[in-house]
Design brief:
With about 230 residues, this protein is an alpha/beta fold. It is about 35% helix and about 20% strand. The protein is built from eight helices and ten strands. It has a six-stranded mixed sheet, with helices on both faces. A two-stranded antiparallel sheet has the order 5-10. β1, α1 and β2 form a beta-alpha-beta unit. α4 crosses α7. The longest helix has 17 residues. The chain is globular and about 50 Å long. The relative contact order is 0.18.
């Protein structure tokens, strides 16, 4: 199952995104989680496509909120490909779906916890508090999951859900989105899948110009600035 969050703007390439998924993965279901879009005219683009499901008015917590939403609606999928509507695939990622590994980030980045500031650290701590996952030591290097997008197998998604983590993995603005990138990387690392070792396209900081100039191998990331 491919799952994408959606706050519609006229610049969104959502139709291209869905078409690219079904081109390379014709047997997959695509679930669009609409996050309170004021313009829902794009629904008409998929009204005759049985492989596309739109969940409307069920998530107000941006892309991170789709993790819990999708799992609760579809708790028995073998895998969840969590992406933005600004991703357009260039080729199949079936090799990652078929792998025994439970997690892959699309891109990752390295960052030290020290020097991030109280606002950042408190936000990250709040998302981990009360779960089985622990806050990294201040001196540690963490590995973030760029855009909190990636492949998550059922077994790992279930553990994140059962631990209560997905209740706390939510965002209401761009700042919290950025902290969620770090938190998903922390959680994946503690599950045994550090994003720098389990990544589809590699190091974002080393490849940022390639991202901007559409030179990645598996997908195009269209920067919308939302």
């Amino acid at each position: 199952m491919f799952c994408l969050s959606r706050y519609y703007t006229p610049q969104s390439p959502i139709v291209r995104c869905v078409e690219s998924i079904l081109k390379f993965h014709p047997n997959e279901t695509v679930v669009i989680v609409d996050s309170n879009s004021s313009d829902k005219s794009y629904f008409d683009s998929f009204k005759d496509n049985d492989q596309v499901v739109i969940l409307d008015d069920v998530n107000q917590y941006r892309h991170p909120g789709t993790f819990k939403t999708v799992y609760e609606h579809y708790p028995n999928e073998s895998h969840y490909v969590m992406i933005h509507d600004s991703i357009v695939f260039k080729k199949s990622i079936q090799e990652f779906l078929d792998s025994d590994n439970e997690f892959y980030s699309f891109l990752y980045f390295n960052e030290r916890m020290a020097g991030q500031g109280d606002k950042h650290l408190n936000c990250i701590c709040g998302m981990l508090e009360g779960t089985k996952y622990t806050f990294p030591e201040p001196h540690q290097m963490i590995v973030g999951a760029f855009g909190h997008i990636g492949v998550i197998k059922h077994s790992m998604m279930k553990r994140m859900y059962d631990s209560g983590f997905l209740n706390r993995f939510i965002s209401s603005d761009k700042f919290k989105d950025q902290q969620c990138e770090r938190v998903l990387g922390i959680v994946a690392s503690q599950e045994g899948y550090p994003p720098n070792e389990y990544s589809i396209e590699g190091d974002y900081l080393a490849r940022c110009k390639q991202v901007d100039h559409d030179q990645l191998d598996y997908f195009t990331k269209i920067i919308l600035g939302r």
